[in-house]
Specification:
It contains seven helices and 15 strands. By secondary structure, it is α+β, with helices and mostly antiparallel strands. The longest helix has 15 residues.
C-alpha cells in the first residue's frame, strides 16, 4: 500500500462538553453529520466569506481534531480561542507532528478516511505522527490528479471563497447547518449560482512552468498556476473566461506554454459557454 509522511501538518484538539456546538456555529463543516471514522474538509472564514484558515476535521471520543498546516497552527489556535468566550471547550495544540497517509484499494487499519479523496474515488487514510519515511511527491501527484487544492500551494488564504476550491462539493460546506462566520455570503453565492472561480487540473505535453505563472485565455488572465508536478498542476481560474476561449478554439496558455484545463470529473461541473452565461 503506497504511503507518505507529510511533516508540515499539525493538529489542534477541541474538547469539552460544548465542543460540537462550538464548532458547528463557527466553521463551514457540518460537524453534527461527521462520523467518527472520517476526516472532512473545513474552513474558518472571514465575515466576507473568504477562507481565513483551512483544515480537515475529524471526531474523537472527547471532541474533535483539526489537522492544518504548521504555518497556520498558531494563528488558527488564537482565532478559535478568541471565539471561545465562555463556551465549555478546551483548545490545545497536539504534540504529534506531521501525518502519515496511506492509499490504495483498501482502507488502512488505523487512521481516518479523507473524505476529499473518497469523493474523488480514492481510498486514502490519514494518521497523526510519523509512520514511514516515504517521499511526499507521490501524495502530491495523487492530489493533483484528483483536483484537490490546498492552501499555500494552490491558493492564498483570505483570497478564496470555499466554492473556488470545490469545498461546496466535497462536504467542506454544510448548506443546511445554519449560521457560521461568513455563512451569508457563501450561501448567497451557492443559491444564486454565481461561483465562477474553480479549481481545475492543468496539463501540458511538456513540463509546466513554475507555480505562480499566469494562465491566459484570449490574452486575458484567468488565474495563476498553483502546485506543479512535471506536466500536471492545479490552478484556481475563472471557468467562464476559460470556457469561452475553449469554445472558440482559442489556446489557453501558462506563460507561453499551451495547456489543457480539466474540471475534476467527480465535481460534475462543466465549463460554461458564452450562450450559457447569457
Amino acid at each position: 500500500m503506497p504511503a507518505a509522511y507529510l511533516p508540515d501538518r499539525a493538529f489542534i484538539r477541541i474538547t469539552g462538553p460544548e465542543a460540537e456546538h462550538f464548532l458547528q456555529n463557527l466553521i463551514t463543516t457540518d460537524v453534527l453529520s461527521l462520523p467518527a471514522s472520517e476526516a472532512w474538509p473545513g474552513a474558518l472564514l472571514t465575515p466576507q466569506g473568504k477562507i481565513l484558515f483551512d483544515f480537515l476535521v475529524s471526531r474523537v471520543p472527547d471532541g474533535f481534531v483539526l489537522e492544518t498546516s504548521v504555518s497556520q497552527l498558531e494563528g488558527l489556535a488564537k482565532r478559535l480561542t478568541m471565539y471561545k468566550l465562555r463556551a465549555a471547550v478546551d483548545i490545545a495544540a497536539d504534540t504529534l507532528a506531521g501525518v502519515t497517509v496511506h492509499w490504495g484499494e483498501e482502507q488502512a487499519a488505523s487512521g481516518v478516511l479523507d473524505k476529499r479523496f473518497e469523493i474523488a474515488g480514492v481510498i486514502l487514510t490519514r494518521e497523526p505522527g510519523k509512520g514511514c519515511d516515504n517521499s511526499q511527491a507521490d501524495y502530491h501527484a495523487l492530489r493533483l490528479l484528483n483536483g484537490i487544492a490546498e492552501s499555500g500551494n494552490d491558493f492564498a488564504l483570505q483570497d478564496a471563497f470555499p466554492h473556488d476550491i470545490l469545498m461546496d462539493l466535497n462536504r467542506g460546506v454544510g448548506f443546511k447547518k445554519g449560521c457560521y462566520v461568513g455563512q451569508e455570503v457563501v450561501s448567497r453565492m451557492h443559491h444564486r449560482g454565481t461561483a465562477r472561480r474553480r479549481a481545475v487540473i492543468v496539463s501540458a505535453e511538456t513540463a509546466l512552468p513554475p507555480p505562480g505563472t499566469e494562465i491566459l485565455a484570449s490574452g486575458k488572465p484567468v488565474g495563476t498556476l498553483g502546485s506543479v508536478a512535471a506536466n500536471r498542476g492545479l490552478a484556481v481560474i475563472r471557468i467562464d473566461r476559460a470556457g469561452e476561449a475553449m469554445a472558440t478554439g482559442t489556446p489557453v496558455l501558462a506563460g507561453d506554454l499551451p495547456v489543457t484545463l480539466t474540471l475534476p470529473s467527480w465535481t460534475g461541473l462543466t465549463f460554461p459557454t458564452a450562450s450559457e452565461e447569457a
